[in-house]
Give the backbone structure.
Amino acid sequence: MQGKTVLVTGAAQSQGRNHAVAMAAAGADVIAVDICRQLDLVPYRMGTEAALAETARMIEAIGRRAHTAQVDVRDRRALEQAVESGADQFGGLDIVVANASICTVQPYDAVTDEIWQTTIDVNLTGVWNTCAASIPHLETNGGGNIVLIGSTASAVGLPFYTPYVASKHALTGLCRSLALELANRNIRVNMINPTGVDTPQGHSEVLPELLEARPDLRPIFANSLPVERIEVSDVTNALMYLASDDARYLTGVALPVDAGSTIR
C-alpha cells in the first residue's frame, strides 16, 4: 500500500475503521467517509462525527494522511465531491473499499416500505454511487482496484434478513459486471463475503427470539468451523490481499471469509 490512496466508506467504526487503519499502517493515505448519524430504523449504534475524527487520528498517528468527509453514500453528488477533494489532496486514487451498509432483522411481514427502500438505497445504490464516483479517478490513475464488502448473504438465503439479502445478492452481479467492463482499463473489482462479524451490526437481539419460534432454521446460521463470529481483522486480512499487487490477476472474485458457513 506504500504511497497509495484508498477510499473507505463507513469508516467511523468497526470494519470500516479497521480497514482504513490497516491500509494506513501499510503505507496508504486514506479518504475516510461516513454518514456520522443514526438512521432511525437501524437497531444498533452507527458511527458518529467524533468516531470518524478518531479514525483520522489513528491514521495520522501512524504517520499517514487522512481526509474525512461526513457523507451519506446515498447522495452521489456529495460522494463525488468528497472523493474528488481527497483525490486532489493526495494526488489520485488507487483503491476503493465499498464498506458502508446497514442491516435490520425481522420477519418478511414486518418489512416496511421504509426498511426495504432504505436498505436497498444504502447497501446497493450506495455501493454503486461509491464505484461511480471513484472509477474516473482510477482511470486517470491508469488503473486500480475496487473491493466490495459483501456477506454470506451475497451467496445464500438468510431468513429474517430479506432486504439485506436482496441487497447483498445484487452486489455479486455488480461486482462481476464491473469486473468485465473495467478490465481493459486495468481496474480490478472483487468482493469479500464474511460470515457474522463481531461488530454492532453482527449482533442481533431479535434473531434468537425469531429462531426460538423457528428452530428448523437455526442450522442455516451455523459456521462449519467452531466459531460463532469472526473478527474484524479476518475481513481486513482478506481485503489487504485483494487490494494488493499479490492479487493482480484476481478480478470478479467473491472471496468467502465465512468459517465454512456457505458449504454446509
